Fold:
Amino acid sequence: MKTLEDLLQSAGNAVEYLINSQSGPNVYPGVPPEYTNWRDEQQAWQKTCVLFNLSFHMADLYVEGPDATQLLSHLAINTFKNVSPGRAKQFVPCSYDGHVIGDVILFNSAANKYVLVGRIPALNWITYHAKTGKYDVKLELDERSAARKDPFGRKQYRFQIQGPNAMKTMEKVLGAKPPEVRFFHVTTMTIAGKQVTALRHGMAGQPGFELVGPYAEGDAVRDAIFKAGEEFGLRLVGGRAYSSNTLESGWIPSPLPAVYSGEKMKPYRQWLTAESYEAKASIGGSFVSKKIEDYYLSPWDMGYGSFIDYEHDFIGREALQKMSKGAHRKKVTLALEHDDVLRVIGSQIEKGERGKFMEFPSAVYSMHPYDKVIAEGKTAGISTWIGYSSNERRMLTIAVLDAEHAEPGSEVVLVWGEENGGTRKPTIERHQQMEIRAVVSPVPYAETARKVYADGKGWRAALPHGV
Amino acid sequence: MITGVHTMFYSSQPEALRTFLRDKLGFPFTDVGEGWLIFDLPEADMGCHPADETVVGQASGTHYISFYCDDIATTVAELKARDVDFTDGVADVGYGLATHFRMPGDFVVQLYQPRSIKVCSLLDKPHRRKVTLAWNPDDVAKVWRSMLEGGDHYKYIDLPLSNYTSASYDRLTHQGKTVGMNMFSGYSYNERSMLSLAIVDPDIQLGNEVRLHWGEEGGGSKKPTVERHKQLEIRAIVSPVPYGKQAQTSYHEGWRSKATA
Structure:
C-alpha cells in the first residue's frame, strides 16, 4: 500500500504537493448549508441562541487501558495533573521539533478512559504511537462522516447550544435550572427522557453546553431543545454559518500538521497511507515558501504557549524549551478594509483583472489556508481562516503575526489569492492577487468575548471546539 | 387572399350615423370624399347561425352586425357618458353578457362581452415577453457594500444563484410604472454580470433601462430565508433571451450609454 512518504518522495517537494492537492472543496457534512439564512444564523449566536450540530465533521478516538494516560501525556504539551474523570481539556500534540500536529478536545470519562474529538491528524498521531509503542491500550476510532461508507452511522451525536439565551433554553428543556458546572467540566442531564452527557462550554463569553449521547437518540434531544428554544429565538445553524463561527471567537481550525518533514517523522509518514487525511490535505493562499517547515505553527503561534508543561516528559519538549527563549509570533484577528474587500468582490462584475472569488460567509478555499500578511513592505506573518461576520459587519481573518506588527490598531496588508494566476487545486479559478488592507485587532474579535478578555477571565473561556 | 372585412349600414340618416360612429363609438376613419367616412375596425370575427324564418332579422340571407368588448360594464359606462341610448340592461345570454343601443336610422345594435377567449386574436395582440436583465454593477456593488456597513443592509445577493424563494417575483418599473416581474436571478461567471430572467410589458424595448426592486417590502416577509433588509432599486438593461454575444458586446462597450431610460 502506498504511503504518505511515497507520495512526497515522488512529488519531490511537500509544498508543491500540498498546494496542488486535487481533493476539492471541503463541504461541512450532515447538515444543510442553511436552515434559514446564514445571516440570521450568525446573528443568533450573538443575539439569541443557536444549536450547532457537530455530529459529522469531527472524528472521535476512544482510548482505554492501563497505559492510556501515559500514552496521551507523552504526546501532549499539556499537563495531565489536572485531568480527572468528568473533566475535559484541549489536547495539543507537537512534533519532535515542537510544531503543532493538531488540537482536539480530550474528555476523561473514567480512570484511563478517554475520548478525543476533533480533526483527524492529532488522532492519527495518537493511533500511530499506540500501535507502534509499548502501550497497553485499546483504541476505537469513530471516523468523521466524510471518511466513512455510512456517513450517518456515527456512534454519538454531538450538539452545542450557545448564545445569550442558551441557559434559558436549557432551563426550559430541563424543567429546572441547568446544573452549576465549571467550565470544561462534564455533567449528565436528562432531555426528552434521554440521558445526555453535557460539557460546560461557551462561546463569545456566553455560557453554553456541548451535549453528547448515543447517535440514535440525537433527533429526540435536538427536537426537544429546538422546541424549548423557540420562544428564545433559537436557530439551528447550517454548514455555511457554522464554518464562519470561529472568526468571532478566534480559534485556528487549520494548522498544517507538522508531519511532512524531518527524518524522525519519517516512520510516521510511512505508516500514514496515501488515503490518509495528511495525504489528501490541501494548502491554499498567497503565502508560499519552498520549505514546508515555514507552514508549521508553534504552540505560541496558536495562543497555546501557556499550555506547555515542561514538568512532564513529552514529544517536542526539548525543542519547545529551546523555542521558549526566542521571540514568538502572536495570534490576532485581522479586520479587513471595506473598500479593498469590495474591490475584490466587485472585480467579479467588472472588466479587467478578477480577484479570487470571495465566498460568503466563509471565504476559505483550502483545508489549510495560508495567506501572506505584509507590513512595511515585508512579510509579517500568515493569515489563516477567513470569512464574513454578519454580527461585526466585516470580513475577518485569524492571523499569526510577528510580535512587532501584532499590536491592535497596526495596519497590515493581506495578499488575497494565489501567485501566478493560481495553483492547480480544483477550488481555484484563474485569478489575480489583490491586496487588502487590514487593521490588527484582538482575538477573539467579538465584542462580548473582548469584554471577558478585559475582565481577566481569559479568552480561552470563549474557545469553540470543532470546525 | 382576403385581407379584411367590410361592413355597411344602410341608414335613413347616413350623415348622423357617420357622426355617431366617429364621435360616440370613436372609430378612426378615412375620409374618402363627398362626406364618406370609411371606418377602421379594431378587430372582427364572423359566425354562422342557423336561420329562423319566424324571427325578424334571422331569415336566411341576412347579415348581422354587432359590437363586442373586453369589459362590458366599463364600455357601457363610457358610451352612456357620451349619451348613447341603451334599450336594455346587460343580460347573460349564454355566449356572453349583452346589451343593445340605438344608432341614427332606426338601428338597435348589440354590444356584448364574449364568454370565450379568442385564441387567434390573442396571438395577434401584443404580449408580455421574456427577456434577460443585465444588472448595473454599481448597484450590485451597493448591496455588498451595505453588508459591510451598519444598519439594515440590502437583501443579500448570493452567488451564483440569488433566488431566495421557489418562485421569485421582483417588481420591475420603467419611468415609475410597473412594467413586469423579475423571476430568476444569479451571477454568470462567463458574462461577468448579474443576470436575471424577467417578463416585461410589450412596450418595453431591448436596451431599455428598467429598475428591479430587489428585496421585499416592509423589511421583508417572514420566510426563513429572508433576513431583515431594505429594498434597493437596481438598474438593469433589458437584453435578449438567451443572453447572447450581442448583448455581451453592447454591455462591454458602454453599459449606461446604451440605456434608453
